[in-house]
């Protein structure tokens, strides 16, 4: 009589019930994985790249005739009596980073040479260096917008 009471309290699970429950557990797990995958699909996996607007400091931090190089952003900010200019240091030949020199800029990869305004003076570069738009932010900092190319010789007056 005691054995019957034990069976009533804890019924044994036969092989069929075990496999049935295991199967339903697999269906539930695969459904959860599929739902998670669908939710992740809704969020785009896009790299927007580096920012195109770069803050380069306050105008009073620059001295006239100074070329301030920003290597990570691949620009040089020039301070002249006419104002400020931002010139790309990406060679128009194959995209190497050019160096500043006494005569302007020079490309270490293939020998292209540019004057102080970025115009080609020698080598295989097909076009002058790009000039970018400079503006003043509301807090008084200079900001270079690399998405806006301006004509060579365009200076921003403060």
Question: How do you describe this structure in short?
Answer:
With 158 residues, the chain is an alpha+beta fold. It has helices at residues 2-9, 15-42; strands at residues 53-57, 67-70, 75-80, 83-88, 99-101, 104-106, 113-114, 120-122, 131-136, 142-150. A hairpin with a 4-residue loop joins strand 2 and strand 3.
List keywords for this structure.
158 residues; Rieske Iron-sulfur Protein; 2 domains; 6-stranded antiparallel beta sheet; 2 helices; 10 strands; 30% strand
Query: Residue-averaged pLDDT, rounded?
Result: 86
Strand count, sense and barrel status of the largest sheet are:
6 strands, antiparallel
* CATH topology descriptor of the largest domain: Rieske Iron-sulfur Protein
When the domains are counted, the total is: 2
Q: What's the Cα radius of gyration?
A: 33 Å
How far apart the termini lie comes to 101 Å
Low-confidence stretches: none
Structural class: alpha+beta
Instruction: Spell out the helices and strands N to C.
Output: HHEEEEEEEEEE
> How many individual β-strands?
10
CATH architecture of the largest domain: 3-layer Sandwich
Morphology call: elongated
CATH class call of the largest domain: Mainly Beta
